[in-house]
Amino acid sequence: MSDWKTYLDREQPRFVEEFLDFCRIPSISSLPEHAEEVRRAARWVADRVAAAGMEHVEILETGGHPMVTADYLHAPGKPTVLIYGHFDTQPVDPLSLWDAEPFDPQVREGRVYARGASDDKGGMFAPILAVEALLATEGTLPVNVKFFFEGQEEIGSPTMGPFVTANRERFACDMVISADGGQWAEDQPSLALAFKGLCAVQIDVEGAYRDLHSGMYGGVVANPIHALAHILASMRDADGKITIDGFYDDVRDLTGDDRARIAAVDFDEARYMRDLQVDALYGEPGYTTLERAWARPTLEVNGIWGGFQGDGVKTVLPNEAHAKITCRLVANQTPATIADAIEAHVQRVAPPGVRVAVEKLANSAMPYEMPFDHPGNAAAAAVHRKLYGKEPYFVRVGGSIPVVGMFQEALGAYTVGFAFGLADENIHAPNEFYRLSSLRRGQEAYALLLHELATQS
Amino acid sequence: MSDWKTYLDREQPRFVEEFLDFCRIPSISSLPEHAEEVRRAARWVADRVAAAGMEHVEILETGGHPMVTADYLHAPGKPTVLIYGHFDTQPVDPLSLWDAEPFDPQVREGRVYARGASDDKGGMFAPILAVEALLATEGTLPVNVKFFFEGQEEIGSPTMGPFVTANRERFACDMVISADGGQWAEDQPSLALAFKGLCAVQIDVEGAYRDLHSGMYGGVVANPIHALAHILASMRDADGKITIDGFYDDVRDLTGDDRARIAAVDFDEARYMRDLQVDALYGEPGYTTLERAWARPTLEVNGIWGGFQGDGVKTVLPNEAHAKITCRLVANQTPATIADAIEAHVQRVAPPGVRVAVEKLANSAMPYEMPFDHPGNAAAAAVHRKLYGKEPYFVRVGGSIPVVGMFQEALGAYTVGFAFGLADENIHAPNEFYRLSSLRRGQEAYALLLHELATQS
Q: Does A402 lie at the interface with B, CB-CB under 8 angstroms?
């Protein structure tokens, strides 16, 4: 019996063909007419997981798109890890910007071009292949492994929260390993310590019962757009610090070590500004750019509208104006508290003559933060050192990944990010691709990680 | 030969039939496909003016829609008055809200329902009929009269300025009498002493070269909507006073007499608020509501837009935001000075990280103000006393009527408002109507006015 690495080398051509097959399934979760394709992807995954040697393979109904689970629990005394990934994809529009059909994968210069290749079919396929190689060559796995592959990540995993809670026993684990995500660069590994939470509101300002003539009523009747501008301007000071009462109350301050880990990341601010085509950055004083992006809560207006938006001039004093706001939250803020604080602020500063309502929108996510020295991070860093010859960056992510908060809440388990996507792979955009070198690296990394985790217990 | 009043009484049925004919012409000036109908209305007016006995009737090309002129200059030593009106109309949409076809006039309960009936076909028809009655019964007119009926008022009289300037001699007069406008109430006459001027700008704020992810870039890259809210909020203080440097510099302060004339107007503020369905009014402190509406300059945002305006949540940090602003100006402000002041203010307060442009929009109008004791006002007030048994209110108008500034500049003549529309007649809205009693009153009023003007010289 050869070792697992030789097995991977030998089977790679077959794995690539299988990966192309997987990419051929148009499992777009947001399109109802593709629901059967998402289910077909679930069957493909279930079959492939079974072929790899995993046990108790099942397609489970979630109330939304189905998910696939399996386990291999034959390492008594060793940790149990739940490996997470998703087999659904984003939509493909605008189709005209693709160089080839999104679900007819093309291999060019060591890259597979297809919708979902990087996000997350390539990511989630790697641990399946690693497990197959270990079982084929060692007859067992070094730790206890559960698979958790879902089909609705790209639509925000709407039914996953109640589903995971209802299946706590089945998914119980010491840690989650996420095969969705990426590394800092092709030659620089990273580990994510935090994702921001989210809360969203809409502000509606109403004035008179109808649009008015700006000549007849200007200067006399309150203008909802002016009122809204006043409300929005009052939420941040000139430097960009949020001035809503209580907004920062629950924020866990960054420690010196936290800040040192962020400062250790090689970040070229001049290039960042050049890429964005801005001549200045902007935000809360007292923090570096990466600290603001990664570890400080934010409030951004996502959209605003009211009155006349056409060409030329319409001399109207409009009777309503609206804005949508999302806040990104950090530990230990909660979406409900922040939404309440925004509402109280808006009502307090609303000028006379208008009626103002704050609608709390359903989208929300708890902020997520895991200990720097979590054993999963230690194991992943050990693998990074072997594969890259480098220590990982410890990064934080300004975006929100609801599923990590869900696992933490329902299973009491932190999630270690262990995936090999790279920033240039056009995820959620035309011409998405995944590097075959990343697919190969992921397989080896997962085999190493499972062994590493076994040594840590 | 009967007197002119008996003549009007006797001919009224014919006049009403003719008025309905006039209203049947769909002379919508804003629709290119109706240009020939506007021209047909000009021919109808020219024919009718000639039938009334006026001389030198001509349809003149203006570079836009044609206009109709005529004169009767046989009162040596008496004043020359130019009577203004317009035969073009607003569009009719939304057609579904009309109870009958807009250009198939219906007579119900003493009212003629048709687009243009009140604005301004009914208004401009009255002086034509008054002149006919005077010529038919007295053989001449008591003063020198010129008619000036245009076909592009509803699109802002775009070619009228250069046209009037080029025809100064032809239109030379001692005063203009406007047959476009209205009275305070059916039982309360009024004279307008001022119209506000207008200047219009668009503010464009740009950030990064594309929309950004609000999680990745929030708190780091300037948000154009926040920048725009800050800019707009900085333009007025909490009470609604404009805080743009120099905004009030050229304003002619109201005298005690000006304020007394405004205070003499019976204005029910509680009812005004109830009608608008607002629980407070809002604006520059130190002035009454009518003073603010009529005699103080204003700045209103007419529209605002940027980012996501759909249902639900889109976590975008948009890369642009826009607002349209119009200011209403009073004597002696000028549109160019105010537009410059806005631009300077915007550039001064624009926060870092965004590019801001102020586009000066073409629409502008000089503010207009005439002396309270102008002889035309004295003559009109004398007629008001005869017809209503009341002194007129001296009002000012928050709206802008470019043509009055044009006459003042090109002809050196003030314009006396002498028209009989009422506020409930749905002008610019579905089911526009004009009262036959107003049509009759207008004829008598114009006959009286021309005699009154003859006694004043």
A: no
